[in-house]
Amino acid sequence: MSTYTDNLLWRYATKEFDTEKKIPDDILHELLEATRLTPTSYGIQPYHFLVVTNAKLREELKAHSWGQGQVTDASHLVIMCTKKILGEEDIDAYIRDMATTRGVTVDTLKNFRDMMGNTVSRMTPEDMELWSKKQTYIALGFLLSAAAQHHVDSCPMEGFSAPEFDRILGLAEKNLTATLICPLGYRSANDTSASYKKVRFPMEELFEFKA
Ligand SMILES: Cc1cc2nc3c(=O)[nH]c(=O)nc-3n(C[C@H](O)[C@H](O)[C@H](O)COP(=O)(O)O)c2cc1C
After folding, report:
1. Residue 142 has what pLDDT?
2. Which residues pair with 78 in a beta bridge?
3. Which of 8, 78, 88, 105 is a Cys-bridge partner for 182, taking CB atoms 3.0 to 4.6 Å apart?
């Protein structure tokens, strides 16, 4: 049985996907569930994900992704969007959800709500969007890691025009912006980059122990 590390060594940023191979529904569900379980600051989850299989839409998006073939060729294209502004209503909705989920009253969460509200309301719109984008990157990590564990290939991608994606997908009207894209599927046998050795700093350079 392969270990967690074996699976991380197996994965790579896939350049060429097999257009014929599709991810089974149960495996896709596992990957999305792992993404859903991402931890975020205060647990606020300031993001939203589109899972795109529509071929015509993907062709249109590819034209704004520097022509990168993964956008059209992978089994599924996940578009990871960030909420641009977090308002009082988002915070209240989250607090209501927490109260219902944990079977407590909203009143018992007042201190937590105020602390979170103070942090968020002090941010400029730019800082808020950046803060939320950071949470979206954590979700990318969870998705990539889960994909590797299920031997589903992936490619994290920032190489696309967010303004064009936002326009095509009507994201701005929904207070969202496309932050990352992640094609998921199965590598093509022709993808020579599958055999590239991983380039990573050595352990002793990367980690410093302060005992
Ligand atoms: C945030 C982020 C953005 C990236 N954008 C692209 C991209 O647009 N196109 C692409 O082919 N690879 C992209 N990559 C893949 C990286 O080049 C790749 O992960 C890195 O070189 C390490 O190689 P490995 O993932 O194969 O181990 C991106 C990776 C990350 C984490």
Report:
1. 99
2. 51, 182
3. 78
Atom of ligand 1 nearest to the CA of 12: 26
The pLDDT of residue 125 is above 90: yes
Q: How far is the CA of 15 from the centre of ligand 1 (A)?
A: 10
Of residues 127, 115, 20, the one with CA closest to residue 82? 127
Q: How far apart are CA 48 and CA 129, in angstroms?
A: 13
Q: Give the pLDDT band of residue 1 (cuts 50, 70, 90).
A: confident
User: What distance in angstroms lies between residue 82's CA and the mean position of ligand 1's atoms?
Assistant: 19
| Contact present, 99 and 109 (Cβ < 8 Å) | yes
Ligand 1 pocket residue status of 67, Cβ below 6 Å: no
Mean pLDDT of the chain: 98
**So what's the pLDDT on residue 42?**
97
Count CA atoms closer than 13 A to 127's CA, side-chain side. 6
Instruction: Yes or no: say if 184 and 13 are a contact pair by the CB < 8 Å rule.
Output: no
User: Does residue 136 surpass a pLDDT of 90?
Assistant: yes
Cβ(17) – ligand 1 distance below 6 Å = no
Distance 56 CA to ligand 1 centre (A): 25
Q: For the chain, which residues make up each domain, given as ranges?
A: 4-85+133-187
Q: Decide which of 3.40.109.10, 3.40.50.300, 2.70.70.10, 3.30.70.860 is the CATH code for 4-85+133-187.
A: 3.40.109.10
Strand partners, 52: 77
pLDDT of residue 25: 98
